[in-house]
Each structure stands twice: as C-alpha cells, then as structure tokens.
Design goal:
Elements (H helix, E strand, L loop, with lengths): L17 H12 L10 E4 L2 E2 L5 E2 L4 H12 L1 E10 L1 H8 L5 E6 L15 E9 L2 E6 L3 E3 L2 E3 L2 E5 L7 E9 L9 E4 L3 H9 L3 H28 L7 H22 L8 H15 L8
Parallel strand pairs: 1-12
Antiparallel strand pairs: 2-3, 4-11, 5-6, 5-11, 6-7, 7-10, 8-9
Helix pairs in contact: 1-2, 4-7, 5-6, 6-7
Length: 283
C-alpha cells in the first residue's frame, strides 16, 4: 500500500461518495476544485433504513450532482458491473470511478463487517487492479486511511455503478445555495422511534454526514472570499457528532444516554439558516 490523495483534498470533510470524486476533480482541474462539492448545502431528508429519515443522498444522484459542481462529466454510466467488466472499462480509460458495497472491499475496515455504498477509483495495472481510495475515517474496526492497493481483478466487488469522468471545458464556479427543510419532523422521527439503539446507530451516521457537509460548505464559501462567522457553529456540530457516537456506545452497554442529544440537533439545524444565509455582496 502507498499513501495517496492529493494534499489539496480535504478528506476529513468529505463523505465516502464525494472523496474519490474530489481526487479526480483536483487531478483534472487543479488544487482546490473539490471544494465546490460543498456549494449546495441541503437538508432534505428522505426515507431511510429502519423507517427513519436520512440525509444520505442516493449515491448515483450524488455523483451526478457533484460532478456537475466540480466540472466533470460522467461518461456512459454502467450498472451492476462485475470485476471483469470493471477491468474492461479500466483498460479503456485512465481511471474508473465506481461505487460498491464496502462489505466486499478488502482494503477497508468494513470488509466482512458492514454494508454501505462506498466509492473507489480503479485503473489497469500490469499486476492487476490498481485501487485508489482517499476515504479517511475512524471506524469501529480501526482507521480507514487514504491509500493505493493492487489486487487480482477477481478480488474486486461488483460495482452498483461505474463510469469514467472527463473534464467539462469553461466550467464556472457554482454559486452557494441553501435548501433547508424544517427539521421538526426529522428530529421527532428519531425521538419517537421504538428501537432506541437502532435510532442511535442511524443518528451517529446522520450527524457524521451533517457535520462534514457543513464544514465542506463553509470551506467553499471561504474559498469564494466570504467571511462566515461559522467557527463556533461548526465546533458545536463536531461536538454533537462526538456526543452521538458516545450515546450509541453507552446504549449498546445498556447505559443511559445524554438527554440533550436530540434538542441540540434541533437547535443546530435551526441555526444553519442564519449561520449559512446567502447574503448579497456588499456594495
């Protein structure tokens, strides 16, 4: 294994679908382009696992929107792509972006332990498949760190979808956009769910996604030259993510969890509107 991910890619504020798209964005357009993935800050929950709402977008939808934001074009997206077909794609393109089940990815701590949709890059190498993954996260089974690995092609998972990406000429930086639904129903769904442990496990993932999205949006706004007064707000989101993780661990051991978790979530979601309000430039 070798280290990877261009130093300009801020892996700590990207999710597992965005992070490898970010690597390609900077590789094809130059350092910092990946921050445009944060141009649109959304809170638009959709139905998710265990009957709970989620802010986690469908991966292919997320890829298409993210690619447009950073000036990339997905070419001929293929679905249900087994390893031999990934190889054929990689032999025709410099690199292929793919999304598959993390359970079958031998380079991740999730391998054989947890199912989730996760992206990776793959290219053809004389010794097999050269896999690149810039994902950076602490997991329950150890750290996931950016790296590059070579595997026999038959060790790769079947991708739910895969494509090559090419640069869009004359791309213009997207304007910041907020789409923030009322959080009341979302918070209430977690408060009222009958399986408290299932709700806390899902909420741990939700707060992780929410927090990274807000850091990424703030980073993009700062890249555009805006002065956001968001530092304290982002620290509170970081604290909430840590609290959710601790609450899950305590619940798994049959211990009481912090009562302020959901009220704090509601408060932060409500505060997003003011902290991240898109205001017209000063004359």
């Amino acid at each position: 294994m070798t280290a990877t991910a261009a130093p300009s890619v801020r892996t700590g504020i990207l999710d597992c679908v965005q992070v490898n798209l970010a690597v390609l964005a900077d590789r094809l357009h130059g350092p910092g382009r990946h921050l445009a993935l944060g141009a649109r800050l959304r809170f638009e929950p959709r139905p998710g696992p265990d009957g709970l709402p989620t802010v986690d977008p469908a991966p292919e939808e997320q890829l298409r929107e993210g690619a447009a934001l950073v000036g990339l074009r997905p070419d001929a997206v293929a679905h249900r792509v087994p390893a031999h077909a990934l190889r054929a794609m990689a032999e025709r393109a410099p690199v292929v972006y793919a999304v598959a089940d993390s359970y079958a990815m031998p380079w991740l701590p999730y391998a054989g332990r947890a199912h989730m949709e996760h992206s990776f890059l793959v290219g053809a190498h004389p010794d097999g498949a050269e896999v690149e993954d810039a994902y950076d996260n602490e997991t329950a089974w150890g750290p996931a760190r950016p790296g590059r690995w070579t595997y026999p092609w038959d060790r790769l998972p079947t991708a739910s979808f895969a494509c090559a990406l090419s640069p869009v000429p004359d791309h213009r930086a997207p304007r910041p956009l907020l789409r923030l639904d009322d959080p009341a129903a979302y918070v209430e769904a977690y408060a009222a769910h009958p399986d408290r442990l299932a709700a806390l496990r899902r909420l741990t993932a939700e707060t992780w996604l929410l927090t990274r999205a807000r850091h990424l949006h703030a980073a993009y706004r700062e890249q555009l030259g805006e002065r956001l007064d968001a530092a304290d707000h982002l620290r509170r989101w970081d604290q909430l993510t840590a609290t959710a993780f601790i609450a899950q661990r305590r619940a798994e051991r049959g211990r009481p969890v912090p009562e302020a978790l959901l009220p704090d979530l509601a408060s932060l979601l409500a505060a997003d509107r003011e902290v991240f309000a898109v205001r017209p430039p000063r004359p």
